[in-house]
Write a structure and sequence with these properties.
By secondary structure, the protein is an alpha/beta fold. The protein has one domain: Nucleotidyltransferase, domain 5 (2-Layer Sandwich), CATH 3.30.420. The protein contains 4 helices and 7 strands. The protein has helices spanning 30-33, 74-85, 100-103, 106-113, and strands at 3-8, 14-19, 22-28, 60-61, 63-68, 89-90, 93-97. The strands form 2 sheets. A 5-stranded mixed beta sheet has the order 3-2-1-5-7, with helices on both faces. Strands 4-6 form a two-stranded parallel ribbon. A hairpin with a 2-residue loop joins strand 2 and strand 3. The longest helix has 12 residues, at 74-85. The model has no long low-confidence stretch (mean pLDDT 82).
Length: 120
């Protein structure tokens, strides 16, 4: 069973969990931390513990796909990704920079798992 997690690491931070190309769970971090339109604080300043990731504490993902808007410095995005990777277990990950508004979660997962059409 292939397990994939798609993560939007910018504002309206969200997580989409797929098993064998089928969407099983979708969460937005602001539903857990009660901060509307939540954008994670910069991990360069502080590491944020994602409450949603507790739902996946026993899952080993085959692939984690990250998407973000272009912050203008890839090292900033890398710090967000590194922080999240410390909080979950995965075999591999991919990062799509600058595609935040065009795809949020469904597009990178669509590319990764070769669905016939994106999940909307």
């Amino acid at each position: 069973m292939r397990k994939t997690l798609g993560i939007n690491i910018s504002h309206n931070c969200s997580f989409a969990y797929f098993e064998d190309n089928i969407l099983k769970q979708y969460y937005e971090e602001d539903r857990f931390n009660k901060i509307k339109h939540f954008e994670p604080p910069s991990p360069i300043k502080e590491e944020y513990e994602y409450k949603v990731l507790k739902k996946f504490k026993d899952v080993v993902f085959d692939k984690v796909v990250f998407v973000s808007f272009d912050r203008g410095n890839i090292l900033i995005d890398k710090s967000y990704i590194d922080n999240i990777l410390k909080q979950l277990r995965c075999k591999d990950f991919k990062f799509y920079n600058g595609q935040h508004h065009t795809c949020f979660m469904h597009y990178p997962v669509y590319i990764l798992v070769n669905l016939k059409k994106p999940c909307v």
